[in-house]
């Protein structure tokens, strides 16, 4: 029986964070108190042994210990190419004042490209610290704070199969929007707008809105009622619309947000240092989703804990 070797895992894969470096090769991490530190992107989103399951006492190996980092390997290998593909798609080069529902440009894309995009953004959702907290949240609500080793093992056990199961359940069925922000940089964080949870049961109206670069985000939603075609759109947003996307990152993030060059202003939600949520009529991103052509009103969504 071999001991698991200590491993440097990433919840924000290097193939994505590399797109967030500025002209000096630096990306920025901001904390809720406003502290900012610049560093090479490969040093962001690191979590030691984050994708391991260790079931023994500290320092004790068991036959059931495992490392499930390979679960995310295909997503990590494909995400840079997915991002480059999104960067080449037809879209409006600048934002306009036209009504939002007239600005979605439908495109024909292959199932293969959609499958890689889906797998990639699901992997970001599953690995996010927000989902790690959800994976142990029920146990801690019933039992209170858990010892670190037991807590980490429970997180791993609940996370391990979530990516595979979510990819299978979602497939390429739903609505996709590639969102472009030419006026203002997007930000990312240790929580973002999605309702993928560990452990995963059946998905109800799965939704993910993931910034992939400071200029490109990907939105997926499978509404409770929608027309199947067209299924993929591009959308160019203005500065105010980007601000709403960035505010959502700050709402769902807890300990850190990342940016390339444009330092964001901290909003009250992020300063609380909690993974908060939008719900009901207070959800400003629901309006964006409701405007996607083919989404039947009203697709109600509660992205709660």
How is this fold's topology laid out?
Layout: E1 8-10, H1 14-17, E2 27-30, E3 36-39, E4 46-48, E5 52-53, E6 66-67, H2 73-88, E7 105-106, H3 111-127, H4 129-143, H5 148-159, H6 162-170, E8 175-180, E9 188-189, E10 193-194, E11 207-213, E12 216-221, E13 232-236, H7 239-252, E14 257-259, H8 268-271, H9 285-290
Parallel strand pairs: 8-13
Antiparallel strand pairs: 1-4, 2-3, 2-14, 5-6, 7-13, 8-12, 9-14, 10-11, 11-12
* Category from helices, strands and their pairing: alpha+beta
Radius of gyration: 19 Å
When the domains are counted, the total is: 1
Q: Residue share in helices?
A: 25-40%
User: Ends: how far apart?
Assistant: 38 Å
Key words describing this protein structure:
alpha+beta; 6-stranded mixed sheet
Can you describe this structure?
The strands form four sheets. Strands 7-13-8-12-11-10 form a six-stranded mixed beta sheet. A four-stranded antiparallel beta sheet has the order 3-2-14-9, covered by helices on one side. The chain has a two-stranded antiparallel sheet with strand order 1-4. The chain has nine helices and 14 strands. The model has no long low-confidence stretch (mean pLDDT 92). It has helices spanning 14-17, 73-88, 111-127, 129-143, 148-159, 162-170, 239-252, 268-271, 285-290; strands at 8-10, 27-30, 36-39, 46-48, 52-53, 66-67, 105-106, 175-180, 188-189, 193-194, 207-213, 216-221, 232-236, 257-259. 32% of the residues lie in helices and 17% in strands. By secondary structure, the chain is of the alpha+beta class. The longest helix has 17 residues, at 111-127. It has one domain.
């Amino acid at each position: 029986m071999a001991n698991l070797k200590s491993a440097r895992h990433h919840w924000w894969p290097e193939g994505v964070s590399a797109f967030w470096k500025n002209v000096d090769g630096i990306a920025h991490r901001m904390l809720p108190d406003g502290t900012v530190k610049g560093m090479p992107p490969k040093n962001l989103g690191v979590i030691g042994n984050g994708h391991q399951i260790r079931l023994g006492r500290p320092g004790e190996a068991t036959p059931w210990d495992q490392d499930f980092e390979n679960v995310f390997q295909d997503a990590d290998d494909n995400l840079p190419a997915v991002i480059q593909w999104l960067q080449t798609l037809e879209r409006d080069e600048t934002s306009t004042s036209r009504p939002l529902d007239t600005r979605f440009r439908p495109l024909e894309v292959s199932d293969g490209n959609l499958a890689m995009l889906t797998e990639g953004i699901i992997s970001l959702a599953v690995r996010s610290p927000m989902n790690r907290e959800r994976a142990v949240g029920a146990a801690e609500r019933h039992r209170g704070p858990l010892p670190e080793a037991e807590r980490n093992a429970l997180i791993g056990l609940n996370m391990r199969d979530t990516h595979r199961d979510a990819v299978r359940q979602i497939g390429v069925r739903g609505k996709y929007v590639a969102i472009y922000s030419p006026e203002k940089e997007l930000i990312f964080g240790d929580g973002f707008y999605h309702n993928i949870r560990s452990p995963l049961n059946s998905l109800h109206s799965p939704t993910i809105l993931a910034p992939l670069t400071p200029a490109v985000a990907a939105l997926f939603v499978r509404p409770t009622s929608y027309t199947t075609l067209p299924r993929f759109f591009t959308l160019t947003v203005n500065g105010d619309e980007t601000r709403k996307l960035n505010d959502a990152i700050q709402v769902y993030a807890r300990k850190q947000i990342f940016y390339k060059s444009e330092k964001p202003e901290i909003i009250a939600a992020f300063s609380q240092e909690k993974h908060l949520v939008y719900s009901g009529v207070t959800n400003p991103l629901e309006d964006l989703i409701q405007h996607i052509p083919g989404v039947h009103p009203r697709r109600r969504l509660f992205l709660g804990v």
